[in-house]
Design brief:
single chain; alpha+beta; FAD/NAD(P)-binding domain; D-Amino Acid Oxidase, Chain A, domain 2; 9-stranded mixed sheet; 6-stranded mixed sheet; 20 strands; 25% helix
Length: 352
Amino acid sequence: MSNIPKILIVGQGIAGTVLHFSFFQSGINAELISTLLPGNASSAAAGIINPITGPKYQKSWKFDELMEVFIPFYTDLERTICLDFFHKMRMYRYLPGLNQINKWIKRWDDVVDSKFYGEFVKTLEGYPEYEGEGTWGEIYNAFRVDFNLLINAYAAFLQKEDLLRNDVFNFEQLKVDKDQVTYSDAQYDHIIFCEGYRLMENPYFNYLPLIPAKGEALLIHRKIDNEVMTKRNELMTQWDESNIWYGATLQNSFDSIGPDHNSANLLIGKYNNDFNLTPIISGHLSGLRPTVSDRKPLIGLHSEYKSLCVFNGMGTKGASLAPLMATFLVQKILENIDIPAEVDIQRFRKEN
């Protein structure tokens, strides 16, 4: 392989965008092939980075390490494409009763996690006052990546550099040998698949335990503080100048890729419960998130064809996970530094 490897990335969602820029930071102008296909999770994602997760209010997996990488990464990307898309947010989560409040206090008392668990706020602007003992807990070090802006702007950046091909990857044009790979008569050192849930259709990586999880959100005509995110029944954040993003559902079983009427009704009911208002709906988003059976990303080289790689499985936390995970794959390809075993695809053995 030459000193400057020739690389093709397949897919320009969250994963492909972040991975491409990671190579760009290392002086590699990778090519990228992508087109918007139904079920693309990135087009429906709000880009929320939330350090507190689940009903037990636990700190997200590796969040301190992730934050050390994603803050400078997105800041550098903003400078490179001259776009303001990365925002530190004030985030509030509703704690409905004493049991939840006590769980929060227990986490708050942990010195290690004190930089994430904030003060209590009894009322929030835009929300009614609720009966009972509930209150709002502030979450520190929450962020939002406006992927709605970023992905389109980065595509324009790639087109300007003549690095983007708007097309569907055709496996019939792929020729794979032990030490090299050719696509559409062009030879590459590595082809990296960032296909989201469509990895299930990839003949080289479809053995990996990827689980598509459908998520849906509503765009509602309303304006709130651009620097605030809130969650009671569902999470709410500003989407564009006129609309908020409200969601999202999580379905492991579904009949169609597109927006579902029942999901819309579910979200409408939750919004009404949150605000005592009927929403003015301006859009309905849906996408299939690429989740994994052990809830860890899928990164690495094919066990037999080392020129083929995968970068996938970020699930619901792609905005925070992708920069560090991209660093692992870039270091593996450029410096042969081992990918951590907990995210390396070698933890899953292909059955013959």
